[in-house]
Amino acid sequence: MNRSIPGRLLFTALILNFFSCNGPQQEPGESANHQIMQIERENFGVVDSTTVYLYTLRNEKGMEVSITNFGGIVTSIKVPDKNGEFADIVLGFDSLTPYTGEHPYFGCIVGRYANRIARGSFVLEGKTYTLATNNGPNHLHGGLAGFDKKIWKATDQVKNDTASLILEYTSPDGEEGYPGNLSVVVKYSLNNQNELIVSYRATTDAPTPVNLTQHSYFNLAGAGNGDILGHIMMIDADRYTEVDETLIPTGNLPLVEGTPMDFRKPEPIGSRIDQVTGGYDHNYVLNNEGEMRVVARVMEPESGRTLEVLTTEPGIQFYSGNFLDGSITGKQGKTYFKHYGFCLETQHFPDSPNQPGFPDAILEPGEDYKYTAIFRFSVQP
């Protein structure tokens, strides 16, 4: 697959120091009790007469990541703050049942095609394919029952100081309207550098659009503990994909400079959000040129918890939780209101099958779709 693309003032010394590449950092979990790398499996419930499991990966610093093989959903990520206190920093639920119903894609693997496809259709090799229009007039996140609603085959392993969960699913030809049998492997790995590494691979027996991502909602103050507007964020992107009123790209890639879309320097998420119609829900054109490097960095000032996202993908969708409206009760009975979480979804661009100027998102037989995203957690004192 062709993955190339063509060519305010007041911050505290703490924030500036953190976002400097040479700024001092405290290793997260230093005060945690030492323990060996491990994986635990427990019954999480039953879906369609099939037992679903919850896997908890723990590293030697005490960081924990819990994942269910229903939808590949990350249900919990527990990381320390600057005082060594752990909190769960992803939105979601305490049990399986709410995940099987309607929810805004909390923590799941999204596919076959993450993000939107205009009018739920595309043309491939002269044939028009029709998909579900499950987001206004458009197709979103794989359709009515995308990868987020599938039970994945799961294998866990501990190897070389890394705990991993390997998830496999074969999407049959015609599922949700997509052509070809698509075999997908997603590997979640937790290491002792407090990195959650997500590796994607896929093969097909017929040309088909593929765009996989991970859809966790983060709140570095802790899930349900207020909004994320005070989080300080950087995104290494000079351009973004302009969208119409239904959030479909126009094909234009405007410069972020001089606009509220500019996060090339650290900026509170909420500092200019009122200048963006509806809030942030935009794909950024990354400056990584296909290299694995930090493309986004977020820090929550009170806790000191930080998140860095690294990827080789050409885009990242920044979503500021605009559609959370207080109607969802999440973990520990906490209500999720508007802007209570943010997403950073590594991806190809939205609607690429209908946008010839965008990076190619069609997987061909004999090709190997693969990429990696890393979610790296640390603490600023």
Brief overview:
3% of the residues lie in helices and 39% in strands.
Would you spell out the secondary-structure blueprint of this structure?
Blueprint: H1 13-19, E1 38-47, E2 50-58, E3 64-68, E4 73-80, E5 86-88, H2 97-100, E6 109-110, E7 116-117, E8 121-124, E9 127-130, E10 139-140, E11 153-159, E12 162-171, E13 182-191, E14 195-204, E15 208-209, E16 213-214, E17 232-235, E18 237-240, E19 267-268, E20 281-286, E21 293-299, E22 305-311, E23 315-319, E24 328-329, E25 335-336, E26 343-347, E27 362-363, E28 369-379
Antiparallel strand pairs: 1-2, 2-3, 3-4, 4-5, 6-16, 7-10, 8-9, 11-12, 12-13, 13-14, 14-28, 15-27, 17-19, 17-21, 18-20, 20-23, 21-22, 22-28, 23-26, 24-25
